[in-house]
Amino acid sequence: MAVSIDLKGKRGVIWGVANQRSIAWAISERLAESGAELAFTYLNERLKAPVEKATAGLDNPILLECDATDDAKVQSVYDHIKDKWGEIDFVVHCIAYAERDDLGGDFSATNLQGFRTALETSAYTLMPVVGRAAPLFGESGGSVITLTFDASQRVYPGYNIMGTAKAALENEARQLAVEFGPSNIRVNAISAGPLPTLAARSIPGFRDMTKAHRERSPLGRNINHKEVADTALFLLSDMSSGITGSIIPVDAGYGIVAL
Ligand SMILES: NC(=O)c1ccc[n+]([C@@H]2O[C@H](COP(=O)([O-])OP(=O)(O)OC[C@H]3O[C@@H](n4cnc5c(N)ncnc54)[C@H](O)[C@@H]3O)[C@@H](O)[C@H]2O)c1
Question: How far away, in angstroms, is 240 Cα from ligand 1 center?
Fold first, then answer.
């Protein structure tokens, strides 16, 4: 008998669509194809039109503006969703930002403000995005994913403070997995290989990263958005019910190669 992942009747909140190249959007398309109902948050008024455009083909998506570094705004997103839906089944966190000056150049030149901006946006936000969603999950629990990168463990020149932020993010994913495990809320991270997106464009050396992954990964190529989206679908479904607190690489195997 064919086995497929069916998310009909499941509902979730997607954080981090900026446009149709966003990883969050690739994940959303896959989730929608599998029958899930989706709510989207977008950072600010400027992103409203691109997010409306991306989601135009979906059936009645909920769209809410929210800067995820503002706890009160995160809470009001979930209050709104609770009023509309009552319960949710999954959350997708695809949020990252660092000041352009702090990407490239000497890592030691990162100042306190730049450190705060990168860590608050790219790591801290997972905590309210998961913590404040927790009361909305039903008795059977649910699943959360975030997006990380290999630079949490190894040095990619130019990625700088974002590597520090990803290390913090991965640690949070493990701590949240332990905290919410008793409620059967699973928390995992996908560690994706380089993909051309808005955020990626501001990383100096992104082309070199892409080239190195293509040339040295066991699969001898770069990954694509759909491969991340398929893994997200698996992690957000009951098919992955035994997995929590894990960092799952979708990197064509690059992470296992030393030379
Ligand atoms: N593109 C890659 O190569 C790659 C690889 C591995 C991991 N990732 C991670 O994937 C995630 C998504 O990035 P992407 O590449 O799709 O780029 P993207 O630019 O499409 O997405 C980043 C999102 O973060 C949002 N954001 C920034 N600050 C925010 C804030 N304060 N509140 C709410 N939202 C905020 C932006 O609006 C945008 O939607 C990021 O965590 C990124 O680090 C990307």
Answer: 24
